[in-house]
Amino acid sequence: MCQLLGMNCATPTDITFSFTGFAARGGQTDHHADGFGIAFYENRGCRSFIDNAPCCQSPVADLIKHYPIKSRNVIAHIRKATQGATELENCHPFVRELWGRHWLFAHNGDLKAFEPALRGHYQPVGQTDSERAFCFMMEGLRTRFGQDEPADDALFAAISDMTQGLAAHGVFNFLISNGRCMLAHCSTTLHYITRAWPFRAAHLVDTDISVDFSRTNVQGDCVSVIATKPLTDNETWTAFEPGRLVMFAQGRPQAETLIPIPEDVRQRNFANLACA
Question: Do the Cβ atoms of 229 and 204 come closer than 8 Å?
């Protein structure tokens, strides 16, 4: 299956260190070689870069590794295709507009028998279950709140409700952001780390690179990095419990809930994970 990378920050921060390790998993240290994407919020704007080439070979990925774009919210994805061809339109993260904001979504998993009746405001461009799920969630938010953008607590409750139904179809690890906050859900495997003052050095698992964050960050900076598997080997990452949904804002977890996964779905999810 695919892998996810997200970053939520109190102050604009670049993701070059984490992305360098993550990119190696796109065909070099792991088998996720069916394309990649990464998107950055800058104020209300959004920069999105996708490529259907393996991330470890992509000139686009090389650009990102050496281009320190500063952002408060970033979502990246490396793809191992389960549904949909290895084409550009099936690369995550997907982007849609709602309430005058760009929304980003990336999914790691496989949803079975999921063919929602979408009403037309949001339609998939590609063939993936992931994009269908994102369109379904966007329609659900639009229907629930109309033209009035909700506060973060109401948004969290709405996404929690929709996630419960979607996760019943299979593996549904995902990241979603509106540029103001980021939500992360775990069906099988997801981890996060929060870095704050006093900062320390970190060393990547997938390539021999270290950074001493105490030299690049100051008091008041705070960064949470979310990844399918820990990116560093000298820090303590927190594993999400399966079913856990967490909202990050200002670089820290702000709200969380546990969405029950039916036992038959849980067993099927982990059987699929063992075969991946």
Answer: no
Measured CA to CA in angstroms, residue 134 lies from 140, 159, 224 at distances of 10, 11, 23
Q: Confirm if 232 and 210 have CB atoms less than 8 A apart.
A: no
Element containing residue 45 per DSSP (H, E): strand 45-51
Query: pLDDT, tens digit, for every residue of 109-137?
Result: 999 888 888 988 899 999 999 999 999 99
Distance CA 53, CA 250 (A): 33
The total number of structural domains in the chain stands at 1
DSSP-based three-state secondary structure for 166: helix
Q: Which residues are catalytic?
A: 2
Name the DSSP letter for residue 123. Answer: -
**CATH number of domain containing 104:** 3.60.20.10
Query: Structure pTM?
Result: 0.94
Residue type, 128: T
Distance separating alpha carbons of residues 222 and 246, to the nearest angstrom = 17
The boundaries of the domain holding residue 140 are: 3-275
